[in-house]
Amino acid sequence: MTELALETTGLTRSFGSLVAVNEISLKVEKGQLYGFLGLNGAGKTTTIRMLTTLLPPTRGSAKLWGHDIASEPLAVRKLIGLVSDETSESQSDWTAREYLAYFARIRGIEDVRDTVERCLTSVGLAEQFRGKLIGTYSTGMKRRVEIARALLGSPKVLFLDEPTRGLDLPAKRETWKLLRDLASSEAVTTFLSSHDAQEIRTLCTRISVVATGKLVFSGPAQDLGADLDTFEDRLVGLLTGARFG
Ligand SMILES: Nc1ncnc2c1ncn2[C@@H]1O[C@H](COP(=O)(O)OP(=O)(O)OP(=O)(O)O)[C@@H](O)[C@H]1O
């Protein structure tokens, strides 16, 4: 049995003449909180859409828990959860319990009530809010509900695409704490995409950096810098094509 949660080989996606994701090869070990860092437009969302079977690759391949994303999409979908940065306005008129129960039923989960409570507990949404309309929640709480939704099927791999985009600093830090807690308490591998160097440096030990669709670094975050300042300096060097020693 492979120890890899995720492996991509030459993964490529073009839109007409634009190569949005260009020959990306990376390996994510099981249990990791893995960082996928890149500026806006670097190709992060396109990569995640391919890995979650929402978009076919133009070339290359990827395996999730040993299952090929192109030839075994249903097996892959059963193993993943996805949180994107889009906050769905359609959740506003539901309570967190109703919203999660709806998705639990769609997923065919039998023990809906217990599963919903377990997931809301995992993301730290206090009991007193669970029966209130999501429209009355703060943005940070709404993001927690989205993460809880992604946890419903007990995913092996959780994809988070810019999960803290649009959050203020306290809400961001709350979400970081939650992601750390999930990584240590749940048996879930996390693939975290972000343009925020501090976020990736704070949370992830192994990272990849992507620039205009190409991988420009892959390895321990520590190798780019032990402190955030050095990390950011070297990152800027990488993103602007400079070398570092
Ligand atoms: N469906 C599409 N059709 C055409 N071009 C697309 C499509 N989706 C993405 N692109 C282009 O591919 C490139 C990579 O976009 P992508 O959304 O993957 O980047 P990103 O790193 O997630 O950026 P951001 O952080 O801004 O979301 C961009 O130039 C984008 O305009």
From TrEMBL:
InterPro entries given in the database record: AAA+_ATPase, ABC_transporter-like_ATP-bd, ABC_transporter_ATP-binding, P-loop_NTPase
Top-level taxon in the UniProt lineage: Bacteria
Organism from which the protein derives: Mesorhizobium shangrilense
Pfam families membership: ABC_tran (PF00005)
UniProt keyword annotations, A-Z: ATP-binding, Nucleotide-binding, Transport
Domain spans labelled ABC transporter: 6-237
Name listed for the protein in its UniProt record: ABC transporter ATP-binding protein
GO MF entries: ATP binding
SMART domains documented for this protein: AAA
